[in-house]
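re the bet — no i am not wrong, look at it urself. input seq straight from the record:
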Amino acid sequence: MTRIELGLFDIQQIDPLAPESSETVYAGRLDDLAYADSVGLDIAFVAERHYLSTYRSQSASVWLGSVSQRTRQMRIGALAYTLPITPPIRLAEEIATLDQLSGGRIEVGLGLGHRVEELEVNGVDPARRIDIFQERLAIMEGLWAGGTVTYESPATVVRGAFLHPKPIQQPHPPLWFAGTDPTSAMWAGQHGMNLAIGFAPGDQLFGATAAFRNGVAMRRMRETDSSTIRRGEVALMRHLYVSESLDNARSEMVDDLLRLGELDSEATEANRAGRRAAAEAHYKTLIEREVFVAGDAEKVARSILDARNKLGSTVFLGNVYGGGITGERVQRTIRLLATDVRDALDSLVTRIG
């Protein structure tokens, strides 16, 4: 049975309850990743979000360059570069450099661009994003493989480009497609990519994973490539909160939600009971809709295993940051994910598969 990898996914969202500067937050997140590496987590991804005042993740490559120097073992990557707005030569060079800096630990997530605004700011016609994505991916793969590439289309011009140095991982680092559209997911599987999904109920993700598996099977039927690059993996992203007990996890999350709710309505002693009831209802909704995986190690491990059995996910990525969650509790979740959750998961897999 394939071992489920455990890791982190950071969208670097702004916490409305934390006034720290971006400089301070970046430093803290780097400390957290160094800690995650030291306790044995397998992998960590960062998002890339553009033109939004609610996030800090505008340059994944710059971030990963710093992360590569604070970690030694775990694999690191972006989920995902929006390829239709990113020059393929530059991105291929950045990935090759990051792979060298990290000692061959880079993973590359690529997306079509789910926000129309992000495409339009860069003058990209959303109706052409699939064509642009495919041609730019082909250019990058040719460059990583050591070719000299010339290509010209209305959206992309490359004339006699080549890379030096190339990535350590050959023919290139593992590629991930980030998206839930079944047609695109099937294409990604046929193309030898991995699939990253998340932040929606499993029933809404099943179509994409089923189509992806079909694409992987079709590729394997015709495949002659003997490279060792990993592919056909499915990563599931969820918000994550782990404590030593179910009751403690629930109580702490409800308290955080209570404080978040006070940003929208005045907090008085007279309405305290109503505000707490609303926070508890919000907590219940987050769990039922599978936005959050939360609880003690056993509960979290069972949730991860249930997702594997339902969606075929072999990688679990937790976003451990949320409104009002302190740095100490973030590192507690990281530690428990790498230790108690890992132990509980391994035990469950051994017992029930």
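see?? The chain has eleven helices and eleven strands. told u. also The CA atoms of residues 80 and 109 lie 4 Å apart. so pay up
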